[in-house]
Task: inverse folding
């Protein structure tokens, strides 16, 4: 079976529906044991009652058809657990992160167009298969996105990779382009945009904006990342509805500092060993 499904959120049960219709009653209902069950089930459905157990929860994103979330097996979930742990040293972080990125890249490649292809096997028999139906390239958002290049090159040995550097303008707090370098024929290619985290979506949206300025079609952009959040997904899909997003997990929300919760910290710092608490020698 395919390793990806669109993210689904189970619909409200009877009590949740009552809370939506009669929202003023939610405060009094929240103290009832069933209210907590309706509000905070393990499947992360939408929080509708302002109970103490739900205070830090956020409304999850809509089930966008262009967003593909990996259906994590127990093994994949264990890998995510390793890299999320604050005490995971750099050697283990890089090892497990590389494995996760490989899964994300493989699923991203599966969203590309393919064309029928026929080959002859060593038994002199014909096999009806598929080949890539379009030219592709990768574009990494410096610096964290560069951590995903290795997995992409392992899957596509001859792939060309462009670079784009975006940083926040200290005066306007808006993402600003500092550098970009792409293959000359990027406008004719499908682009795999690489960045492991999707928080506010500012950097990703700026990168997509630059790609569009270089002639890349919006529908030909596939954004690959490991961890995302509803706020970033909603912002990106709203502005660029034809872009495909492939992510390993969707976390709960952004906190007041715009950090993904529960998150992973600064992916680039942890991967390249430049964080303050890195155990790398």
Result:
């Amino acid at each position: 079976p395919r390793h990806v499904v669109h993210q689904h959120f189970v619909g409200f049960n009877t009590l949740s529906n009552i809370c939506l219709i009669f929202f003023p009653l939610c405060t009094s209902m929240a103290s009832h044991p069933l209210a907590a069950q309706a509000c905070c089930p393990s499947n992360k459905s939408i929080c509708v009652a302002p109970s103490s157990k739900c205070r830090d929860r956020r409304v999850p994103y809509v089930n966008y058809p262009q967003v593909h979330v990996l259906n994590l097996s127990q093994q994949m979930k264990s890998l995510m657990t390793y890299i999320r742990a604050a005490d995971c040293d750099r050697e283990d972080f890089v090892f497990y992160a590389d494995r996760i990125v490989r899964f994300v890249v493989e699923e991203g490649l599966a969203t590309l167009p393919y064309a029928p292809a026929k080959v002859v096997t060593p038994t002199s028999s014909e096999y009806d298969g598929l080949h890539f139906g379009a030219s592709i390239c990768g574009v990494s958002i410096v610096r964290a996105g560069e951590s995903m290049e290795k997995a992409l090159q392992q899957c596509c040995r001859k792939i060309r990779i462009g670079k784009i550097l975006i940083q926040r303008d200290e005066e306007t707090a808006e993402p600003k382009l500092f550098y970009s370098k792409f293959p000359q024929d990027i406008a004719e290619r499908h682009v795999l945009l690489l960045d492991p985290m999707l928080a506010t979506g500012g950097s990703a949206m700026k990168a997509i904006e630059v790609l569009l300025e270089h002639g890349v079609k919006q529908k030909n952009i596939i954004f690959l990342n490991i961890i995302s959040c509803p706020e970033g997904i909603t912002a990106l899909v709203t502005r660029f509805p034809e872009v495909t997003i492939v992510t390993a997990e969707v976390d709960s929300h952004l906190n007041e500092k715009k950090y993904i919760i529960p998150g992973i910290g600064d992916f680039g710092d942890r991967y390249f060993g430049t964080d303050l608490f890195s155990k790398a020698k």
User: Anything to note?
Assistant: The radius of gyration is 21 Å.
